[in-house]
Amino acid sequence: FAGMGGTLIVDILKGAEWIKDRSKRYIFQPMSRSEDVREYLTENGFVIIREDACFDECRPYIAFCARFSPEEQTPQRESYKFIGELYKCKNEAAAYYFTKKYLYLKERADALERANLLPEEVRMIKAVLPDIYPLTRRVEQ
After folding, report:
1. Which residue has the higher pLDDT, 137 or 25?
2. The pairing of beta strand 25-28 with beta strand 46-56
């Protein structure tokens, strides 16, 4: 599942019960909204095995491998949908990805808060930012 946005990948997964095959591993490379894919997978019996990041023409790309294995699932922090297993990847592309994600989420929470909109989303974002920050490159506040 590559080259599509995370929202489209999730829509495809929702209509594909055949993916719940314990003998298969799946590779995901969402172009955006990777958190949607991670959230769907972890809520539907999948385990993310490995994640990695790389640059292509200065843009960070992430990819991860998952398999259906509901018995292996463990409760995850709310930030897992943004971090996944990518925190184990210590290269510059992963740090850059986390920096971009951190700045986007912080800006979104600040804008929603100023507009007095979506207080639950603001609460969620503010709760996950401290988990993402240590994974970033030095971020100017």
Report:
1. 25
2. unpaired
For residues 64 and 51, the answer to whether their CB atoms sit within 8 Å is yes
What does pTM read for this prediction? 0.91
Give the position of tokens 């958190």. Answer: 35
* Reported confidence tier of residue 73, pLDDT bands at 50, 70, 90: confident
**H or E segment at 28?**
strand 25-28
User: Alpha-carbon distance 24 to 98, whole Å?
Assistant: 29
Taking the C-alpha atoms of residue 51 and residue 33, their distance in angstroms, rounded to an integer, is: 15
Instruction: Give 107: exposed, middle or buried? Use CB within 10 Å, 0-12, 13-18, 19+.
Output: exposed
Structure tokens at 89: 């990847």
Query: Whole-angstrom Cα distance, residue 41 to residue 48?
Result: 8
Residues 52 and 89 sit within 8 Å (Cβ to Cβ)? yes
Per-residue pLDDT, 75: 84
> Are 135 and 98 spatial neighbours (Cβ–Cβ below 8 Å)?
yes
